[in-house]
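Q: Give me a protein?
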Amino acid sequence: MTASRVLVLNSGSSSVKYQLLDMSDGSRLAVGLVERIGEETSRLKHTPLGGTSRETNGPIADHQAALKAMATELAADGLGLDSPELAAIGHRVVHGGKHFTDPTVIDDAVLAEIERLIPVAPLHNPANLTGIRTAMALRPDLPQVAVFDTAFHTTMPESAARYAIDVKTADEHRVRRYGFHGTSHAYVSRETARLLGKAPQDVNVIVLHLGNGASASAVRNGRCVDTSMGLTPLEGLVMGTRSGDMDPAVIFHLMRVGGMSTDEIDTLLNKKSGLIGLCGDNDMREIRRRIDEGDEQARLAFDIYIHRLKKYIGAYYAVLGRVDAVAFTAGVGENAAPVREAAIAGLEELGLAIDDDLNAVRGDEPRLISPRDARVAVAVVPTDEELEIATQTYELVGESNA
């Protein structure tokens, strides 16, 4: 029996998302979410392929208990972790620094490096490590693979990756632009090339990953040459609760004049800024509803969001020199037609335009929304980070076995 299944784990500080995929055909055998880990109101929602969702509520003490509960649900569907068909477990790891450029089989040295990177990813890497160690304890005999959010962006040239600060200080403290959402940008740029009937190495794409977190990337011939997020996911586009680009002196001003602590400023910029800071909502659907009702604060928030987005499209057009496609993805990018329309409006001189009828269509498949004769394609490409993680994991394990 060929082992063709991959379990994908995305471990957060108080949640675990999981999917079990069969790589022989890319089918999802089960998907699930354990949330509010460590609370009395923990919840596990599990959905098997072609079956009915099951939900259990009650305290789940920690990640070990969460993964054991997940294993129980999988076993109930005949998909237990002890199955000989399970080839590997693939883990989403947010920060891999500059050295992890590819998916990597996890050993003690890899764990130590992920731990060493905690200072530059204090919210994410500890949770990722907890999930990895728990899964390794459950199946110590099974290959465990780390797929890094930052890996796709390690192809950026130094001119794009470095900040203009003292080199010695930057190197000592690992201060540089790493970028995030890499699995999404990799998947979407490749799918965009396929949609155009071309190979990834023949296409230049601007990818706009627009969700509650948002990032842009410039992809030349299948390789990332620039991206909007930096040392952390705070830099770049206006996001749901993050400010994105900002004069760093604002921080000093708030410390000196506002008397704010570093923790207070960190909370402000990461959790109380962006759309929610501008208008009190970070749901684009609610913001559009308020705009339709004449809410000027919501309109201003939307305009600031679009202004920043348009700036990045123009900047990455200049970086790439030639653009074959602009691809929208993630929750907002895939579903908010007004965002796509506003972001492309006025860029006709760059060969960019949107067909209103095509833009209004909703669907789960990659599609073009630009006029047939447009010089640059505009696409909506649903992202699939779990499939990307599973694919990279399976390819690596297959090579290792071979």
